[in-house]
Amino acid sequence: MDPETAPIPHGRLALIALMVALIGAFLVWRYNAPPATAPGSPVAPAAGPETPSAMTAGPTASAAADAAGTAVERLRPEVLASHPHDPQAFTQGLVWHAGQLYESTGLNGRSSLRRVALTSGEVAQQVEVPEQFFAEGLALVGDRLYQLTWQSHAGFIYDLKDLSPEGGFTYDGEGWGLCYDGARLVRSDGSADLIFHNPQDFAETGRVTVTQGGVAQERINELECVDDAVYANVWQTDRILRIDPRTGAVTAEIDAAGLLTAEERAAADVLNGIAYDPEGQRFYITGKLWPKLFAVRFAP
Fold first, then answer.
1. How far apart are CA 97 and CA 193, in angstroms?
2. Cα angle value 168/219/163 (rounded, 5°)
3. How far apart are CA 92 and CA 81, in angstroms?
4. Could you report the per-residue pLDDT of 113-147, keeping only the tens digit for each?
5. Which residue among 32, 178, 189, 190 sits deepest, i.e. has the most Cβ atoms within 10 Å of its Cβ?
6. Distance set, CA 290 to CA 53, 67, 122 (Å)
7. What is this structure's pTM?
8. Domains (range + CATH), the chain
């Protein structure tokens, strides 16, 4: 009989069947087994509402800082005093210097730069902004005040002593808030970004995205630079954020709700306006069309 056509003994058939079964079982197990990970390495969670999908852009430096566990303090304003504030002032920027307040007010046809007496709220001096401009944030650099406009891509410079015009500057995008950290002007444009400018020519020198818990914080508005931090109103909220401008990470959140009575709030607009008095170690905060300005400290 030809060896290729000879019958296979029953013992060998049983052995072959066993081997086929074992190979099949191994392939089923291997197909369904989870991917191996190195000892001690974390398993990535499935994408969902609290985690970024694989299609999102990589984390910014600020997101990385938040992910690393940046602690966010929860603070409230401790009211030290309240002062009258012009309820017709659509406050967009606020600066404290040498015992006086300087205020930028907005709206087309109503925009101005003002020097204001703290205790009475009276306007000691006022410069009207041309009606085609909607004035916004305000910052002091040396002996000059810088004032933004909303959508005109232009700003104004004034002499601190008498508020006389001293020129202007231009920039891309919108102007919302402005402050000076001693080296750079810091601008917001309604997004989640802080934008840095050279005060000599207002050239943009960089920007950072403000994040909290890895989430970009949109609608950053009026700004105040204090020491190594930037304080920011968040438009249409009662939140004030303390931001690390190196990374954009939020380091504190201040809940400023409840400063006005229900009656006062009914006739007022949103919280907007932060100024810092370094000698008194206090902040002054107010809002658009608010009847009061508050001297506060931020406390747990």
1. 27
2. 25
3. 21
4. 999 999 999 999 999 999 999 999 999 999 999 99
5. 178
6. 42, 38, 14
7. 0.77
8. 84-299 (2.130.10.10)
